[in-house]
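Dear colleague,

Thank you for sharing your sequence with our group. We've completed the structure prediction you requested, and as agreed, I am returning the results in plain text so they can be pasted directly into your records. Please verify that the sequence below matches your submission; if there's any discrepancy, let me know and we will rerun it promptly.
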Amino acid sequence: MRFLDHPPRFLFFTGKGGVGKTSLACASAVTLAEAGRRVLLVSTDPASNVGQVFGLAIGNRITAIPAVPNLSALEIDPQDAARAYRDRLVGPVRGVLPDAVVKGIEEQLSGACTTEIAAFDEFTALLTDAGLTAGFEHIVFDTAPTGHTIRLLQLPGAWSGFLETGKGDASCLGPLAGLEKQRSQYQAAVAALADPQRTRLVLVARAQRAALREVARTHEELAAIGLSRQSLVINGILPSGAAQGDALAAAIVRREAEALAGLPVALQALPVDKVALKPFNLVGLDALRRLLADDETDATDDDGAEACAFDAPALSSLVDAIAADGHGLVMLMGKGGVGKTTLAAAIALALALARRGLPVHLTTSDPAAHLAKTLDGAVDTLTVSRIDPREETERYRRQVLASKGAGLDAEGRALLEEDLRSPCTEEIAVFQAFSRIIREAGRKFVVMDTAPTGHTLLLLDATGAYHREVSRQMGGKGLHFSTPMMQLQDPEQTKTLIVTLAETTPVLEAARLQEDLRRAGIEPWAWVVNNSVAASRPRAPLLRRRAANELAEIDAVATRHARRYAVVPLLDEEPVGVARLLQLSAPAGTGV
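Please find the predicted structure tokens below.
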């Protein structure tokens, strides 16, 4: 594997949920350790199962892996880190500031932004304190800090005074307010990340066009902030030998080959490795050693490929329930790569067609060409619009500078302009653009793709950038009013659908998103498990074993996470065009 050639001291594995970062990080650490290198494996992934992979409890302490000489591991729990971070910031003001103010600070520090920064706070010492890691030649990180986190840490150092004088507005300044004392340490950590002699970033993706476009954006974003030494690993490629006698498997092999042939230009200069899809769960040393091996027998091995019973609600059951209301907002949420755009188009089409003839507005912040290609046709009752994040962000910046910045001195205005370069600014700007469209849901269906994240909703709800301001101005006058946040929180007006895949990490990430939404007062209406192999009734042995592995995750969605749910099968043809999109809401299979 090229990404392990001449490895530097720090190896970071990053990518969307469910692409196999943890497995590849663990397998790489084992490979290096068995080659005689002293290795520390560090996980900062909240969905990490490193301990489960090795079959022992690890936790927040350096723990030797007995079965692998030279290998130790450490798990940083981001939620524990975030709690400690919040306590450090809020503790000094409890009993000093009014309870309502303290509660507001706690709410502002409850989102994903705080969790990212707190996790970075925890492992910074591993990058900068040579004494802690002197015994190790390589440190392998499962989940690198995102470009979002690094850009936040590059904001100016005068946050605390800016906030204390009341000049700050809804942004990431709250979570960042406690970092000033460690600024030099963070600068050293960011420098280590950007040093190609010390750090290599391994981008992990699947062989899917949308996933490769997403990882190309990640590559460019991280390269722009100095992380230039990168490699690409395309994981989970279905071997051609697995396609014999199975139309679904043959179609997957063909689609993956086409996706790889059309690799985005931004990725073509990177070293690229390909890892075959495995039929087994990646738990235990034997599985990890086999992951990076090119074993063709895995594709045709019939062991464990027995049929498995499967029955679950189809997407059509959710669409029928949505259509019964005659209008409303349908908001699809989920991590990148789970298929939100495709499902949003499928739901919008199903509402507009199938003898319903209902007027539907489908809106997205994804590139317009992508959505147009997905639909590949026009429907009289369907309106499609695009929100351009760059245009909306620039509009929002101008608005804030004209209002909030009008009364600031030169120093305060400069800090405000710097803050408005925070990645949170784009999230808020896109939310405001969505808010303008939300009003249409009182008379028609509005289906929203790439909806605001749980982090954005928490941020807006905690700071009251719009909602609380309107409440304060209107509430005392006896007037009826409604804000976008109130509409999202009203189950009679909004149905929020969480999209995931039938794999461990995507389900865990979707569950965390659900908790974020609930803290913002939004109760998800349903979950959609997308691209299910089990629902596709495969015949190829490798896919049948993968289908059997899905059942536990689908059961977790049905019994622990979702009030209602649907399962969408993996199609043998890419769901592009009206006819294929409508297939996604066809009844699920009754057996595999």
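Summary note from our side: The two ends are 35 Å apart (CA to CA).

Kind regards,
the structure core
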